[in-house]
Specification:
The complex is a heterodimer of chains A (100) and B (178). Chain A has 100 residues and is mostly helical. Chain A is built from three helices and no strands. The longest helix of chain A has 31 residues. Chain A is elongated, with a radius of gyration of 17 Å. Chain B contains seven helices and no strands. Chain B is mainly α. The chains are: A mainly alpha (100), B mainly alpha (178). The interface between A and B is large, with 71 and 90 residues.
Chain lengths: 100, 178
């Protein structure tokens, strides 16, 4: 029987991998994918706790997180498209328009 | 059997996540992320969250990743732009690994008298579409409606952002937008 701790540990590992990706990658698209991975790790943690407590509120939370992730992906990819039209790059090192 | 499934799915999720993080090509990274999401859907099934597992495959692996692939192929990004950062990478990497170890030790602290938390028996109808749907339309009706407004705002925002051009917009175009 798998314990709750195993699921929490897997969630922590996936979250850390996503965080490493956000810091090391310089491609804006892959950074967005890493953010999605971090959201998924949090979802796994919430579902595991929900199962552990025998309470289905967590499923509703995960549903809402999925909604927000979909909205975030749509808006973020639209931002990337409009940036690419202006600068012809998705490298975040070259995107320093807001630098004072 | 459950332990075997957990090991296989968890290993697959971690390996494909590592492959995504170290990859330089956006298309390969997206494919690895799809594998991670499918493994996570299997883990949700192990945790008796059947509706969420189906939503994970339909919404994440289906809709969101297709959107990603669509944008990647639309932009036609050159290979050289996917390089890894040069200078402060080591410091950031060490910091993130330390935070990850902190997470893991926090999980390990979570024990009663040295024994791990085991899952109890599941209540009937846990995680089925009927139960979650009933909850969503009674107890969480207001957040559900707010989520629909959020999605509408996201659609409008995405269309406006992807449509306009900032640098070479003519005076007539500026006039109509403001």
């Amino acid at each position: 029987m798998v314990s709750l701790n195993a699921y929490l540990m897997l969630g922590a590992v996936l979250f850390s991998i996503g965080a490493v990706g956000v810091f090391t990658q310089r491609n804006a698209l892959i950074i967005y994918m890493c953010i999605e991975l971090m959201l998924n790790a949090v979802n796994l943690t919430i579902i595991a706790f929900s199962r552990f407590l025998n309470n289905m509120d967590g499923h509703v939370f995960v549903f809402m997180i999925m909604t927000v992730a979909a909205a975030e992906a749509a808006v973020g990819l639209a931002i990337i498209i409009s940036l690419f039209r202006n600068k012809a790059t998705v490298n975040v090192d070259d995107l320093n328009l807001s630098k004072g | 059997m459950q332990l075997l499934m957990f090991c296989v799915l968890g290993f697959g999720a971690v390996v494909s996540a590592l492959n995504m993080v170290t990859n330089r090509k956006p298309v390969s990274a997206a494919m690895s992320l799809i594998v991670t999401m499918l493994c996570l859907a299997g883990l949700y099934v192990l945790l008796d969250a059947h509706l969420i597992a189906a939503l994970q495959i339909i919404v994440y692996a289906g809709a969101i990743m297709v959107l990603f692939l669509f944008v990647i192929m639309l932009l036609n990004v050159q290979e050289k732009e996917g390089r890894l950062a040069g200078s402060a990478i080591l410091l950031q990497f060490v910091a993130v690994v330390v935070v990850g170890l902190l997470f893991l030790s926090m999980v390990n602290v979570d024990k009663i008298d040295g024994s791990l938390f085991a899952f109890g028996d599941v209540v009937s109808q846990f995680g089925t579409t009927k139960a979650v749907g009933k909850m969503l339309f009674t107890e969480f009706l207001l957040p559900f409606e707010i989520a629909s407004v959020l999605l509408l705002a996201a659609i409008v925002g995405a269309v406006i952002l992807a449509k306009r051009r900032i640098d070479d917009s003519g005076p007539s175009e500026n006039h109509s937008r403001s």
